[in-house]
Automatic annotation (TrEMBL):
<dbReference type="Pfam" id="PF00590">
    <property type="entry name" value="TP_methylase"/>
</dbReference>
<dbReference type="InterPro" id="IPR000878">
    <property type="entry name" value="4pyrrol_Mease"/>
</dbReference>
<comment type="pathway">
    <text>Cofactor biosynthesis; adenosylcobalamin biosynthesis.</text>
</comment>
<dbReference type="InterPro" id="IPR014777">
    <property type="entry name" value="4pyrrole_Mease_sub1"/>
</dbReference>
<protein>
    <submittedName>
        <fullName>Precorrin-3B C17-methyltransferase</fullName>
        <ecNumber>2.1.1.131</ecNumber>
    </submittedName>
</protein>
<dbReference type="InterPro" id="IPR035996">
    <property type="entry name" value="4pyrrol_Methylase_sf"/>
</dbReference>
<keyword id="KW-0489">Methyltransferase</keyword>
<keyword id="KW-0949">S-adenosyl-L-methionine</keyword>
<keyword id="KW-0808">Transferase</keyword>
<feature type="domain" description="Tetrapyrrole methylase">
    <location>
        <begin position="9"/>
        <end position="216"/>
    </location>
</feature>
<dbReference type="GO" id="GO:0030789">
    <property type="term" value="F:precorrin-3B C17-methyltransferase activity"/>
</dbReference>
<dbReference type="InterPro" id="IPR006363">
    <property type="entry name" value="Cbl_synth_CobJ/CibH_dom"/>
</dbReference>
<dbReference type="GO" id="GO:0032259">
    <property type="term" value="P:methylation"/>
</dbReference>
<keyword id="KW-0169">Cobalamin biosynthesis</keyword>
<dbReference type="InterPro" id="IPR014776">
    <property type="entry name" value="4pyrrole_Mease_sub2"/>
</dbReference>
<dbReference type="InterPro" id="IPR051810">
    <property type="entry name" value="Precorrin_MeTrfase"/>
</dbReference>
Length: 256
């Protein structure tokens, strides 16, 4: 069957927060878009023309935002949904897919595409060296969409399997104690000497990188703009005179 809907929905990752880290593909997709949906601060990053429209919303309204964008695309609009970092990493691309799956059959005819972006853990990793140089995983510490017990189970499994871990959504006002709890869980399964990188606002003017051993890691060292990378026992720290240390995870890491 040929598609009867001419509208399109493009989900675009805007990178960690500076113009140089927005890909040319993302810029071209923004240029071609008519309506832009997203969390306010992300929509604010766009330099839109007068003929392009903003639809900013709160960051808790992901599914209703996805549905509003799909409804407009179903009417023939060239619609964009924007996220920070990569749109497929703890962001809008999955919410749009979820809405397509649950929504009316005609939404499946919309031309749907995802433009990738530089995700936070890559921006942070690049600042300190190569902490993601061997096997790693990414875990959101937010329990908005999954129970905290499952997060703890994944932390333990990842620590025992020797993965480097990148934590997204490490804290929020509603969850002040969970990051402390996560560090306590890790301290029970990893040596205190394991390197932890607190990468705040990577790529933005207020960027701050802090490196601590797990034994010193504290929830005060992170906020909502921080991506935390917890090394494995193989992760190495190279001290350098007059420069920040390098953190890297050797490619050959891992023994049975
Ligand atoms: N889609 C985004 C992640 C959204 S979840 C991405 O791919 O990067 C939001 C979390 O991402 C924040 O709580 C923080 O952990 C992380 N984050 C987003 N931008 C960041 C940045 N510039 N520096 C460090 N962490 C960032």
């Amino acid at each position: 069957m040929t598609s009867s809907i001419s509208g399109s929905l493009t989900v675009i990752g805007l990178g960690p927060g500076n113009a140089a880290q927005v890909t040319p593909e993302a810029l071209a997709a923004i240029e071609a878009g008519e309506d832009f949906f997203g969390y306010g601060p992300y929509v604010d990053r766009l330099n839109l023309r007068d003929d392009q429209r903003r639809h900013a919303s709160d960051n808790r309204e992901e599914i209703s935002r996805a549905e509003a964008a799909l409804m407009l695309a179903a009417k023939g609009g060239r619609v964009c949904v924007v996220s920070g970092g990569d749109a497929g990493v703890f962001a809008m691309a999955a919410a749009v897919c979820e809405a397509i799956e649950a929504g009316p059959a005609e939404w499946r005819e919309i031309h749907f595409s995802v433009v990738p972006g530089i995700t936070a853990m890559l921006a942070v990793a690049a600042r300190v060296g190569a902490p993601l140089g061997h096997d790693f995983c990414a875990i959101s510490l937010s329990d908005n969409l999954k129970p905290w017990e499952l997060i703890e189970k994944r932390l333990i499994a990842a620590a025992e399997a020797g993965f480097v871990m990148a934590f997204y959504n490490p804290v929020s006002k509603a969850r002040p104690h969970q990051l402390s709890r996560a560090f306590d869980v890790l301290r029970a399964h990893l040596p205190g000497s394991v390197t932890v990188v607190f990468g705040r606002a990577a790529g933005r003017p207020d960027e701050r990188m802090r490196i601590e051993p797990l034994s010193n890691a504290h929830s005060d060292m992170a906020d909502m703009a921080t991506c935390i990378i917890v090394g494995s026992t193989e992760t190495r720290l190279i001290e350098r005179p007059g420069q920040a240390p390098l953190v890297y995870s050797p490619r050959s890491a891992g023994k049975i």
